[in-house]
């Protein structure tokens, strides 16, 4: 890889690493500034980790009707940054591909990453309390497209004997993400407290695991480019 190209890859990987870190920091901060209330606990005065979705952080108002501006702004910045970073990062597959026939997986990975990133931005731009249908559609599309990206990225890693630790964690994440997508489409509904808590817990796990895996994969790309 040429020196200039390597530096570009490093910058793109650094952007995704930064976006992953700031997502964790900003969403935790948003939870502390959330005014409170949940579907089955409307009188709550704080964010309930197992009853409030991430999307509640991005709503314009809480279930009890309180303004949620501070948390909403932090959520929008956090998720939009990840979506934008994924768009920029999408071309770095070229630093993995060294074999004939890799391009089909590489360009597919790039398309999936771009579309998934746009959908994550779409989630941030559509508060569920104002545009529920569009918000839910973006959620389902974002994770489904992310699955496509991870499948193609894993295929590239296997074909090019990528570092074992990155491939193994990517494959493990692939299993977790596949399970979550099943829950997202076919899991318990939100009309009962038990169903809601199950979906909220599953979402918390997949969101933070997704961000951590993206950051870890970006670290692998950065290390490889730095050695080029």
TrEMBL record:
<keyword id="KW-1133">Transmembrane helix</keyword>
<feature type="transmembrane region" description="Helical">
    <location>
        <begin position="72"/>
        <end position="92"/>
    </location>
</feature>
<protein>
    <recommendedName>
        <fullName>DUF998 domain-containing protein</fullName>
    </recommendedName>
</protein>
<feature type="transmembrane region" description="Helical">
    <location>
        <begin position="104"/>
        <end position="125"/>
    </location>
</feature>
<feature type="transmembrane region" description="Helical">
    <location>
        <begin position="15"/>
        <end position="34"/>
    </location>
</feature>
<feature type="transmembrane region" description="Helical">
    <location>
        <begin position="137"/>
        <end position="156"/>
    </location>
</feature>
<feature type="transmembrane region" description="Helical">
    <location>
        <begin position="200"/>
        <end position="221"/>
    </location>
</feature>
<keyword id="KW-0812">Transmembrane</keyword>
<keyword id="KW-0472">Membrane</keyword>
<feature type="transmembrane region" description="Helical">
    <location>
        <begin position="168"/>
        <end position="188"/>
    </location>
</feature>
């Amino acid at each position: 890889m040429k020196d200039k190209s390597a530096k570009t890859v490093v910058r793109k990987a650094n952007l995704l690493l930064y976006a992953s870190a700031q997502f964790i920091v900003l969403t935790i901060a948003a939870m502390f500034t959330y005014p409170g209330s949940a579907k089955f606990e409307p009188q709550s005065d704080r964010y309930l980790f197992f009853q409030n979705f991430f999307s509640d952080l991005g709503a314009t108002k809480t279930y009890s009707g309180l303004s949620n501006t501070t948390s909403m702004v932090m959520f929008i910045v956090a998720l939009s940054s990840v979506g934008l970073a994924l768009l920029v990062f999408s071309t770095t597959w070229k630093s993995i591909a060294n074999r004939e026939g890799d391009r089909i997986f590489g360009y597919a990975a790039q398309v999936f990453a771009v579309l998934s990133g746009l959908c994550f931005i779409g989630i941030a731009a559509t508060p569920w309390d104002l545009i529920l249908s569009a918000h839910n559609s973006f959620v389902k599309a974002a994770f489904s497209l992310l699955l496509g990206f991870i499948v193609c990225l894993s295929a590239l890693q296997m074909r090019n004997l990528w570092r074992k630790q990155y491939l193994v964690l990517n494959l493990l994440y692939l299993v977790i993400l596949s399970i979550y997508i099943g829950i997202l489409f076919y899991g318990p509904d939100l009309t009962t407290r038990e169903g809601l808590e199950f979906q909220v817990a599953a979402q918390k796990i997949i969101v933070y695991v997704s961000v951590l895996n993206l950051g870890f994969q970006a670290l692998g790309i950065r290390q490889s480019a730095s050695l080029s």
